[in-house]
Every structure is written in structure tokens, then in C-alpha cells.
Amino acid sequence: MSEVKVGIIGATGYGGLELIRFLHNHSEVESIELFTSSDAGAIFSSKFGHLVAIQDQPLQEIEIDKLSKFDVVFTSTPSGVTSSLLPPLVGVGPKLIDLSGDYRLKDIRSYEKWYKKTAAPEHIVSESVYGLTEWNAQRIKESNLIANPGCYPTAVLLSILPLIKDRLIDSQNLIIDAKSGVSGAGNKPSQLTHFSEMNENFSIYKINEHQHIPEIEQAIEMFADVQTTISFNTHLVPMTRGILATTYAPILSGVTNKQLNDCLIESYKNHPFVRVVQDVSSLGTNRVKGSNYCDIFVKLDDRTNRATIVGVIDNLVKGAAGQAIQNMNVQFNLPETLGLDVIPLFI
Length: 347
Ligand SMILES: NC(=O)C1=CN([C@@H]2O[C@H](COP(=O)(O)OP(=O)(O)OC[C@H]3O[C@@H](n4cnc5c(N)ncnc54)[C@H](OP(=O)(O)O)[C@@H]3O)[C@@H](O)[C@H]2O)C=CC1
Ligand SMILES: CC(=O)N[C@@H](CCC(=O)OP(=O)(O)O)C(=O)O
Hints:
Helix content is 29%, strand content 20%. The chain has 347 residues and is an alpha/beta fold. Strands 3-2-1-4-5-7-6 form a seven-stranded parallel beta sheet, covered by helices on one side. Strands 9-10-8-11-14-13-12 form a seven-stranded mixed beta sheet. Residues 79, 100-101, 150-151, 180, 184-185, 211-212, 234, 236 line the site of ligand 2.
């Protein structure tokens, strides 16, 4: 029986298109309606030919009255949009799942510092629940406003949180080196993502200033009860999808490679989307491409007494739309894997 009526704002963006791809095959979704800020009336499939005969509906103008009739509204819009768009919808009916950064940081001054945008009202931000599904399912189930995590934080946090929580690594000295495919930057062309400047190039960007730094620090405190400051940098890889994030962390005295691995295996034994990889040759963005998996890996470097910890995701799936649907499943008491149980593309 299909019951859930879905609205998507930002449907024409990369996150929105991935929401449509997965929700189309979701057995509990009754209908999907699509909204735009720029092209109301346009037939969706005329913009995206791969959806001919699948999504031939017209895009609708964003109106609060129309949106309040849905069971769930996904917002997949640039930062700074939902801070003013969502407050009138909070508490009036639909469950809200925001893929942008607007409701993730509890300290609104921190949001304004890192995003350089006006924050959402503090009393609404305080109601939002951080949607890192594997770590926060109980609160997600009870919430009507989910702040879906950023793509980099998802890969980083899923790989390091168990080791910090079990006090196996020194959380005060984390160095995180992350790389992303270009779809992480969304569908708006820019100098950074221009083919002739990005192709055959490997670049670092937002050095020491990435907006995901406070999000990762906040989540470490929230889930592992540790205050810390991290070194975190991001790189652009000339490929479309995927994030691989490597964390270097000193181990605490006497910790073994087996303890590190056992901790990850034990933490995720009941979480089907997190796979603890043993063989490093099985690690790579093509092993998760198009899927909701997060592959994680740890290995002790016993010369330096540092652990090398790796998290790999598809930024558009586990890093955005997939995790958002996983959160919807939790909110509606459905199996977490519903609609998301797909095999990675690999090639
Ligand atoms: N790409 C990624 O890997 C990830 C992205 N995110 C976050 O998710 C959000 C969406 O990302 P992504 O899909 O890549 O972004 P895109 O830039 O691809 O798409 C965003 C869409 O938002 C709509 N939009 C733009 N301005 C407004 C506005 N003022 N009001 C309402 N809608 C607007 C546009 O559609 P239209 O013109 O039709 O309204 C646009 O297609 C962003 O906040 C991003 O940071 C999070 C995790 C990963
Ligand atoms: C490759 C690339 O540019 N990636 C983006 C990820 C954006 C994102 O997910 O940011 P939000 O926190 O706004 O959701 C970036 O590094 O800013």
C-alpha cells in the first residue's frame, strides 16, 4: 500500500534529481510533486530527457498552502534559501527534510560566520534534528524537521565517530583530508567546475575555511561527547561523483589494529548501509557509486602510532538524497533500506 505524498523543492538540481530517481521506486510513495523557483509551468521531462514518460508533470510554483498538504517535503536548495522558506511550514503538517546546511549548525552565529548568510530563526534551528541516520535514528523518528548532513561530514563522521566514542584515537589531533567529485558543487556552472579548468586537474579549495568544519566538530561533540577542533581540507577530483575522506589520528596508548577494526564492525553490525572494508583494494568511489553505501576502513600505522581511517560515499546518494530518504523511512517507521536497496554502479 502506497501512502506517502512527497513534495520536492529544488527538483531540478542534482540532489533533487537523485531524490526523484530513488523515490520513483519507493513502494510506500504514492505521489511526487515538483516545485521550482525559476521555471513554473515547464514540463519536467522537457528539461530532463531521461525522465520522458516518467516525470511529465509541470513544475509548480513554490506556495506554502500547496506545500502544507504533503506528508513530507524535501528541500534541496542552495544554502540561505530554506532559512526563510521553511519556518512557515514548521508544525503545519508535512515532515520537512532539508538537504542544505541551513538547519545543521545549532549556533546561528557560527552558521553566519561559515556560510556568510543570514541564519534561520534560532527557535526553529533549535527544533531541527541532525539527520546522520546511523547515529540519531531515535531523534529523527520523533522530529518533523531534519537537517540532512553535508556530504563530507557524512563520510568523515561515519568513519571516525565509533573510534572517538570508544576512546581509541586521540580526538584532539585529527587531520582530515577529503576529496570530492564535481557534482558536489551542484548544477550551477562556475570557474572551479569549468571543464577545461577542472579536467586533468587536481585542486584544493576553501583551505581551512570549509563550512563543514563546524558541522563535523559539532557532531563529534553531539555523538561522542568530546569538544575538539579539527584540521579539515577539501580537494576537487576531475570525476562526477564520489567522496573519499582520509583521517589521520594518533591512537591512544596500546590500541591495536584489531581493536580499531573490531570497534567499527561492532558499531555498524546492525546498519546495512555502512560496510567495514577489510581489503583496501575494495575501497574506492566506484564501489559505492549510485548507491547509499558508506564504505569505511581503518589501518594502524605502527611506525607512527597513527590510525589511517577512510570513509567513501557517493556524495549525491549517502551524502544527500539517499540519506534524506533513509531519514524519511525512519520518520515513517519504514525499513531504512526501502527504495534504497540498489547495487553500486561500479563501472
Ligand atoms: N551536490 C551534493 O553533492 C550535495 C549537496 N548538498 C546540498 O544540497 C543542496 C542542493 O544541492 P544541489 O542539488 O547540488 O544543488 P543544485 O545547485 O544542483 O540545485 C539547487 C536547486 O535549487 C533551486 N533553487 C535555486 N535557488 C532557489 C531559491 N531561491 N528558492 C528555491 N529554490 C531554489 C534550483 O532549482 P529551480 O531553479 O528550479 O528553483 C536548483 O536547481 C545545497 O544546499 C547543497 O549544498 C548536500 C550534500 C551533497
Ligand atoms: C565539490 C564541492 O564544491 N562540494 C561542496 C559541497 C557542498 C555542500 O554539500 O555544502 P552544504 O554544506 O551547503 O550542504 C563544497 O565543498 O562546498
